């Protein structure tokens, strides 16, 4: 038997693994930067560069692509990529396949010598793979080969999708009943206190939550704080930057809600800056609170220990105090009403008065800790 030549076999079955991009990073119809071999060659409009690319260092374009890629560990993301014939988990290949288009900003990729407008590209965004992204279900697909799926840039670890409803984009996210309850409850309390927060609604008796795109189809651009600090958990430097930008009050409102509702999942991809045509215009509203009441709602032991107060004391209280945040006065009868009203959309939880009582006590205990 002849000796097997592995090199011949590899060469026979290998495919072209060149995922590089040559062209322009665009903002609407403006050429922002020239890109060659997926490297920034020249900035053409400094004020319109994404924050992570502003220093123009080597690798910043690819780093920007990586901030926009779907979490490849999400089970249903594999189904989405399979439907789009994306064979690998290479971030740049995945994002380039979608022209790097995101629902929440106006950036996109244009190949060299390509004659196409931003509107033409934006109009190709399709929600036809939303059931695949949410359920892994390939049966309900209305998606053509020329369509662009926003799911490839839909980041985060939970199964989710974008859905176009009456001309507006909505995020639909799947979680446990208690995670979805926490998402909606936190938003309801924040809104009742007059804070800027994204409103969430329960779908299918709480199996899903839905919210409207807070950029209103990219009227403004969302920049996650990760783009500034390049660290997933770097909150301290983020606070300093936000203070310099003049949006500290809005961030402290978010921090207060995290403390009140025991949210241990505030990271640099779920808060950030809003820009319009390159200029900062404010902080993004409070969103992504499905891990509020964290752990306590899924662990019977923790439900009885009120561990959340020590987390609030050690992590959030020092930030609030260092910036002399004025703790809002809270009507706790109103909080009870909000807990009860939120639970109504969750058939099982609405009948569990012990659960509602635990939720109320967590919030009350954390508030008492904050005003000590």
Automatic annotation (TrEMBL):
Organism encoding this protein: Clostridium zeae
Record-given protein name: HipA-like C-terminal domain-containing protein
